[in-house]
Amino acid sequence: MLIKKEDSVKKQIAPDCIIQEYPLNNKNLDFALAIIDGRFPESGKTTNKVCQEIYYIISGTGTLYINSKEIELNEGDVYLIEAEKKYHVTGENLNIALATSPAWYPEQQEFSD
């Protein structure tokens, strides 16, 4: 299955985060590109109650704050964020290829302080 860039959907999901979604129409897998230049979420933490996320860092630098740890993110790194984990990310022009399994859907995402 080929999804052309022109068939993707660009969304500003937070002041410092832009997502480019590529519609796979597959309930088991989803793919997007993200650019974080600041903090996501804007405040507090986010949790995917169902979906796991795989981050592949294309370029830029950042820090993932998860499980009371600070994890530096650099070009070429891969990180698996398991479901139910509370986290936030800061980045300087952090470009991420991200896949989710099962496919991400808004109702399963929670934000907290």
Low-confidence residue ranges: none
- Total count of strands: 9
Question: SSE order, as H and E?
Answer: EEEEEEEEE
User: What is the CATH class designation?
Assistant: Mainly Beta
Radius of gyration: 13 Å
Q: Bin the helical content.
A: under 10%
Distance between the termini: 39 Å
Describe this protein's structure.
- The chain has 113 residues and is mainly β.
- The protein has one domain: Jelly Rolls (Sandwich), CATH 2.60.120.
- Helix content is 0%, strand content 63%.
- It contains no helices and nine strands.
- Strands 1, 2, 3, 4, 5, 6, 7, 8 and 9 form a nine-stranded antiparallel beta sheet that branches.
- The chain is globular and about 40 Å long.
- The termini are far apart.
Short description:
This protein has 113 residues and is an all-beta fold. It contains no helices and nine strands.
Keywords, separated by commas or semicolons:
113 residues, Jelly Rolls, 0% helix
List the helices and strands and how they pair.
Layout: E1 9-14, E2 17-22, E3 30-40, E4 45-48, E5 52-66, E6 69-73, E7 78-81, E8 86-101, E9 109-112
Antiparallel strand pairs: 1-2, 2-3, 3-8, 4-8, 4-9, 5-6, 5-7, 5-8
